[in-house]
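Revision sheet: structure tokens.
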Amino acid sequence: MDEFGVRNLRQAVASVGRDDLIQLCQELLRRPGVSGREGDVARFVAESMRSLGFDSVVIDSYGNVVGEIIFSAEGPRLLLTAQMDHVDAGDVAEWSKYPFGAFIEENRIYGRAASDQKGALASMMLAASLLKRDRSGVLRGRLFVAGAVHQETFERVASKAIGDFADPDCVIVGEASGLLLERGQRGRAEIRVDIYGRMAHSSHPEFGVNAADVMVEFLSFLKSRFTPPRDEFLGEGILVLTNLFSSPSYNRESSQREARPDSSAIPERCTAVFDRRLLLGETLEGVVRQFEEIVDGAVRVLPELRAKVSYPVMEDRCYTGAPIRGSHYAPAWTIPSDAPFLRVLSAALEEAGLCPDVSARPGFGTNGCHYAAERLLPTVVYGPSRRELVHTVDEYIEIDALVDSCRGYFAMAERLLASRTLCGQGKKRVSVKEEKRRKVHGAAS
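Predicted:
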């Protein structure tokens, strides 16, 4: 892209209107959408895609919204995806601005999900519309923009539905990356350990086995035995205790009548929940086996220990009413720093006058785990804003970063949809899957 092309790209965003992009982002922020209640957001996204000229817009059974722009029947299939759901805003009184007001101050738009990831979604939608307006007849293949549900809770399940529909050849995920290209992320597994005791009256604990006491001893043993694995790029496969509770429990928030029967009993069960960050090649089943081996070793020094290791399987409802079910597990993934896919995207950004750099550190947990690790597709994370703003009070996105991300999505999609090799050839996608894994991801992935 020469200087004239860069100027045209900047003018393309400006001609649709910086104000239009800001307004689109604001309207998304004004529609709350915690996981499972994204309906208002989804309906607005679908209506906006139709207004922006998408050739088709589909809402699947989970409630994901997928818009498609067709440049030609044959050619690459590119997916841009960002989440529509967000974590709860928490105590609204802690915010200096109403979290769903989308107020603008000092060149920032404030609101829950501004950085995670409604700003990215707005930019993707507008960039796709600009490509259709300015590059029809030049580009090949199909461009999909997807707003995903339940990313905070069931990212792999919702993403699989999007992937099955779009059948992409390559993917760009809109997580906050500071407008750097991110080439991988650690995975995660949620592991549960239940320790069983024997209930007795708390005035005579010697007649029972206090499961909470045994849990304390087990946690100490676990800490002394667990050594996190390490990857040069991904870092440590850390283990963090995230929840601890016992049964029967004394619920101080319930009435005295409900609480009284449990208040004088020692716990017969104590449960610990752990977040284990995974490195390349680690699986959910492998982490469970690792825990079981640690439990077997603990039994030899803690004779009262009776424990069960499991991974929680969660169930919920989508805003459409459809059930959604899955474990809290995501595999790790990377692509090599010298992968052709990365080089092309970096060059496209540089030619558009944007930062072409690849991040030296891995990204957050994203639905890239499905596309890169399970579908074996060339995948990167690229989005406006910074990770330290995600899930925070007074979350915001800088307007300049919002506009630059729209230019970035435009430039990268334009380059990929003009390529005859990097994004694959439609009829060959299945037959060359393993070859793509070797060539694009490399042996390290």
